[in-house]
Design goal:
- This protein has 2 domains: about 140 residues, 3-Layer(aba) Sandwich (Rossmann fold); about 120 residues, HUPs (Rossmann fold, 3-Layer(aba) Sandwich).
- Strand 4, helix 5 and strand 5 form a beta-alpha-beta unit.
- The two termini are about 20 Å apart.
- It is an alpha/beta fold and about 280 residues long.
- The chain is built from 10 helices and 10 strands.
- The protein has a 10-stranded mixed sheet, sandwiched between helices.
């Protein structure tokens, strides 16, 4: 399996270039088709409602203004990827809000690249929970790029956060192209508190190690008892291991505003310093 179609979200974030360059490097490595998508910020449902007057001059002026901003972002994207030398590139201007547009576009890509929300930057049309919404709605692997540091591909040291659950199992399979090319893969089994989790089996991480070994991937299994915030503990382990990619599942609750697994995922999305690959 390779990532043959890579989609990257484009906006006016100060660190958008880092996201573009990382997506371009991945596309070059896998000989992928790279798609840059810029949303206008107007929900597609506005255009689908017959009661809304699309010919209203105030709306038309606002729409044209937003479309021009998107075109400017796409033009910059094309300049960056051309300078890097990506062979197959496509620019898409999408009349939709960021979350709705990226969720739909990502369903036709092998890998989606988006940015971590930056609370210090004012970015028109980008919601603080964009990463969560795309992970939960796309059904595809989503690579979230931090707004700090200088992420680059290839990922040499990969940390897999393993809990034996459905989402973790799915994201490991979707991460195989990255895992098979890494020089080191660390499977971290976190034992939270004193509770015994039967999902790990008698020897935690052994079954996953065998699964990855059949893909010619050598892993180092690390079992860590966790007290306190599991997300902070995972980030601390990643720093100790000098990991340059974290692979973990995204988990959902039934309540709409509690989209992800609570502490672990939320902490990572807020405090991540290396890219995180998630899937739900």
């Amino acid at each position: 399996m390779n990532y043959k179609t890579v989609l990257v979200h484009l906006d006016q974030a100060p660190r958008c270039d880092d996201r573009i360059k990382l997506a371009a490097q991945i596309s070059q490595h896998f000989d992928s088709h790279l798609i840059g998508a810029a949303m206008t910020g107007i929900s597609r449902y506005v255009f689908n409602r017959a009661e809304f007057d699309l010919t209203d001059p105030v709306f038309s002026h606002h729409r044209d203004h937003l479309r021009q901003h998107a075109r400017d972002v796409l033009k910059h994207f094309e300049h960056v990827v051309t300078s890097i030398g990506v062979d197959s590139v496509e620019s898409r201007l999408v009349d939709d809000d960021a979350a709705g547009g990226m969720v739909l576009q990502s369903r036709y890509a092998d890998l989606t690249v988006i940015g971590q929300f930056d609370a210090t930057a004012t970015i028109p049309g980008v919601m603080s929970d964009l990463p969560e919404l795309v992970v939960m709605g796309s059904g595809r692997p989503v690579l979230i790029v931090p707004h700090s540091g200088q992420p680059a591909y290839p990922f040499q040291r990969v940390l897999v956060a393993w809990d034996g659950g459905l989402s973790a199992s799915r994201v490991v399979s979707l991460a195989l192209p990255f895992l098979s090319r890494a020089s080191s893969v660390d499977v971290v089994v976190m034992q939270i508190g004193d509770k015994k989790d039967d999902a790990h089996g008698e020897q935690p991480g052994a079954d996953l190690g065998l699964f990855l070994a059949r893909h010619n991937i050598k892993v180092n299994v690390i079992e860590r008892p966790i007290q306190g915030d599991a997300g902070e503990a995972l980030l601390s382990i990643a720093a100790d291991l000098n990991s340059d990619l974290i692979v973990m599942g995204g988990y959902g609750h039934t309540r709409f505003r509690e989209l992800l697994l609570g502490g672990v995922t939320r902490t990572l999305l807020q405090s991540m310093t290396v890219p995180v690959l998630m899937a739900h």
